[in-house]
Amino acid sequence: MSDRLLAALAAYRAASAVTVIGPGVTDPLVAYGAHFPGAVFTLFEPDPRAAAQLARHTPERFRVVTRAAAAPLPPAQVAIIRHPDVHRLWATWVGAFDAAVRSLLAHGVLAITCYSWAEAQRVRNWFLNEALELHLFGPEHLTPVEFSGADRYILLHNT
Questions:
Q1: Model-level pTM?
Q2: CA-CA distances (angstroms) from residue 112 to 3, 8, 136, 157?
């Protein structure tokens, strides 16, 4: 996990429930576990093949679900959406955004990482249409966050 994302989520280290949407198979699950030491994790992976691979290689406190099993997501203090491919799978990600927002408990946080400024703006515009306020870290932050992809932007929403 990147230093910027860890700093943004520092107030939530004591979270008991964390949802990660779209982790793929290369997310640093050990880093998530270390940052949220008391949390039980729900990993919502819409790709069935990636979900099956994740399920074989995750620690006990990580529960992997696919779209069919993930509605609704369990309540969480923290929801992290990893680099949604909004340019290719917009309908899938809008559903994920809805599920993440509905699962957040009071005083929780939603963090969304994005690859590009255009992607961050599209996600931000969807949330503005839904009357949610997001805080955008970028474009002045040009160093990619340290994920498996080239995520450059982090959008945050506090409930």
A1: 0.80
A2: 15, 11, 10, 9
